Amino acid sequence: MISYDLAKEQGFAVVHNSVSWRMAVHAFDAEVNGLKAFKNWGVHQESEEGFVLLKGAAWLVAAKGTSGDNFRVFPLQPQQIY
């Protein structure tokens, strides 16, 4: 088993690359993924993503389509996979 220490990661960092998938950490940065930076939807039509909140508070906003009118907000619980 491989163990990763993510406590010191900042910003976006890929921690493992495989042939058809990768694992990355996206630590909080107010300028990149804070509320003030929330202007455009990140569209991922060719991939699936999973999220794990390690500590703190976060919400996942998911939308159908790109209009931004049909979206849901999910509060994330620490140590749960979404």
What characteristics describe this protein?
26% strand; globular; mainly beta; 82 residues; two-stranded antiparallel sheet
Which stretches are poorly predicted, pLDDT < 50 over at least 5 residues?
none
Q: How many separate helices?
A: 1
Rounded to an integer in angstroms, the radius of gyration calculated over CA atoms is 14 Å
Order of strands, widest sheet: 1-2
- Average pLDDT across residues? 81
Number of strands: 4
* Inertia-based shape: globular
Largest sheet: 2 strands, antiparallel
Strand content: 25-35%
The N- to C-terminal Cα distance equals 22 Å
Structural class: mainly beta
Q: What is the N-to-C succession of helices and strands?
A: EEHEE
Helix coverage percent of residues? under 10%
Question: How would you describe this protein?
Answer:
The chain has 82 residues and is mainly beta. It is built from one helix and four strands. A hairpin with a 4-residue loop joins strand 1 and strand 2 (22-26). The longest helix has 4 residues, at 30-33.
